[in-house]
Amino acid sequence: MITPDYVRTMAAYNAEMNRRVYAAAARLGDAERRVNRGAFWGSVHGTLSHLLWGDRIWLARFGVGEPPPVPITDSDTMIDDFDALWAARQAMDAAILDWAAGLPSAALEGDLAWWSGATGRDMVRPRALCVVQIFNHQTHHRGQVHALLTAQGEATGATDLPFVLD
Prior knowledge:
- This protein has 6 helices and 2 strands.
- By secondary structure, the chain is mostly helical.
- The chain has a single domain (4-155), classed as Four Helix Bundle (Hemerythrin (Met), subunit A) (Up-down Bundle).
- Strands 1-2 form a two-stranded antiparallel sheet.
- Helix 1 packs parallel to helix 5 (127-151) and helix 3 packs parallel to helix 4.
């Protein structure tokens, strides 16, 4: 389904797009970042916090780092301070890049089993599919943040994969 090179490419894309999105979000005032603008996780800040939560839970399932300290229902408020959220995001992006850099093909084979708080049950899915989900989740919610930022007059530059990475 996917290769370690795909994972490394997506990790690099994710880190760069997060840098761009956070730069645009930082140009807004804190109050503007927190206004509920109708995204699934409400605000720019809430959605960025949820994104970090999602990366933490998925990477923990792959044995990288600790799971988030709050349940998914509180993921939008996991980190209240924007500067702390940005610092945690940078650390998570570095962890994803490191994980991807050393990922062997065998790590994408077989199944991953975990207990899902979101569904309230044990889950088993192909490992490769779960890795794709990490990046799919990022792109989905980061796209929501991008739309919110654009509506507030901010820009992130190109977002299409072929134009973001060299």
